[in-house]
Amino acid sequence: MARGAYGEQLGRSFNLETPPTLSSPTRFGPLVVTELRSDEPGFGFTAPMATESAYLLGLQLRGIAHHELWVDGRSVPVKPISPGTTHLYDLECNPICFTDQPFHDLFFYLPREALTELGEDSGTPGVRDLRWEKGAFLDDTVVRHIGYALLPALHAQQHTNQIFVDHMLVALRTHLVATYGGLRAARVAPACGGLAPWQERRAKELMRTRLADGVPLIELARECDLSPSTFVRAFKRSTGMSPHQWLLMRRVDRAIELMSDRSRSLADIALSCGFADQSHFTRVFTARTGVGPGVYRNAMPRSRD
Description:
Blueprint: H1 7-13, E1 21-24, E2 31-38, E3 44-45, E4 54-60, E5 68-71, E6 74-76, E7 86-90, E8 96-99, E9 103-111, H2 112-122, H3 141-154, H4 162-180, H5 185-188, H6 197-209, H7 217-223, H8 228-239, H9 243-258, H10 266-272, H11 278-289, H12 293-299
Antiparallel strand pairs: 1-2, 2-9, 3-8, 4-7, 4-9, 5-6, 5-8
């Protein structure tokens, strides 16, 4: 598949190099989020992007008082942009933007073919097009919360939790198809049972053996002979939690084992167990045990030499 409008290619359109990027593979192309930021005024025009069958969904992290938009060579009426609002760009229509102000955005890349995957899961015709008024910036709380949840992963000290990224981007795709694609929520998420015993064993085995690095959601689903969205629903029905939540709990369990070695710092334990940084480790550990890792470790009995 040809490289799409994300990562370095999207950055070049905004005259930025190597912007932070996270991606989640699907059978029909990646779902990707790219962070673009410029703190300098006088930016100007975005460079044209290659026409392709995909969307860019922008989440504005900074407001912009003055900007302009052209679609298929025609000027589109726009209003000042409020922070936290969202806009959809159809890459089949050659969008060009202008602003002379600093900006900070998250851009989600969504191939049309990846949207149709949800229809296949439910045995209904897939959705390829999203309905959105040109030039409109909407206050979509789901998009905003998903975007802000992904920001720490974009700046993690080490590799981030791939299952978490997969879960967030697949959830975003489901929301967009259900809200703007006309596919009713009941059809997007049909009733399903849990995993078969062998599927649950295989999924948990894979996550345990790759505790630090994590396993892409598409790989876990493939091992269970399911689509990613069906796998997530079945896993939650069987275990009471999402694959990402289950993996975090196992990482906490492993961290507790390692904490008995007093020569290892909590920061080192956090990274070796797959947490993005010590702050992330502390939040998850406290939610799991009720106390911070430092307090928990101090209460542990010391081994006698």
